[in-house]
Amino acid sequence: xxxxxxxxxxxxKTPEGADKLRATRQALYAHQPEFCSVTFGAGGxxxxxxxxxxxxxxKEGVAAACHFSCVGATKATVRxxxxxxxxxxxxxxxxxxxxxxxxxxAGGEFHYASxxxxxxxxxxxxxxxxxxxxxxxxxxxxxxxxxxLQAFAAKVKAGANSAxxxxxxxxxxxxxxxxxALQLGVDVPVVPGIMPITSSTQLMRFSDACGAEIPRWIRLxxxxxxxxxxxxxxxxxxxxxxxxxxxxxxxxxGIHFYTMNQAAxxxxxxxxxxxx
Length: 276
Ligand code: FAD
Hints:
The protein is an alpha/beta fold. 49% of the residues lie in helices and 14% in strands. It has a single domain (5-275), classed as TIM Barrel.
């Protein structure tokens, strides 16, 4: 596809998961991603797996972005982790606040992702390309839509180079977000994050947690399929290919796929987009 593409993975928990992810990556590398990113459990819970997977991607000759969350972290640990990533040859970070699992106290020396972005710039200068998260449908904890947009602008002002959005199915929310950001003078690339639909229950669960809206017609169609996974997947491919095509036609700066460590759906969406 004639558009920068990136793929997101999560660190596998088992040796079997790691093998499966290696195979997924090899399948997806055929699409020549601009970079592949690896998520980071808030509170540093997946640090070893995240850094390990990032290291593997770099060894495979592909640019890697390490997600990096600051909630609960101290400046000393963040400094140490940044030094490790620099020594590994990592050049791109996705800088996040993150969400601590319930039961953890807030603590830490960073309150918001903008604090982390400022700290990374202060400590490492221009060593990293910094991505931040954007929420076209508004972050669930935001005081208001306007406050959330201001928070996004603050992250860019602190030194972020570009952004990846939370996934969405309503492209109008994305276009309005980008327009509103531009009105504030924020003109960094905002790359839409795309979640392939492969499972109804998983999608409902994720969307409730992250505040992504599933339009009524999609929700009802998915509910109507019940346990018929073949129909869910087929419908999901149609919906997401149409969404990507619409975004591409509108001139988005790239597409970031939340692969969920699976190659099949993303590969099929890419194949269809090459044919449209
Ligand atoms: P922030 O930008 O700090 O915003 C968090 C909330 O605080 C928002 O409601 C915002 O409006 C508000 N806010 C910000 N600044 C201020 C201020 N100065 N005053 C008042 N309110 C303010 N989570 C993980 O744990 N690991 C990952 O790897 C991961 N990867 C992600 C990748 C992408 C592309 C996206 C979109 C999300 C990812 N997340 C990840 C989820 C993310 O950590 C959560 O959405 C988290 O709740 C917010 O993180 P943030 O960086 O957007 O926070």
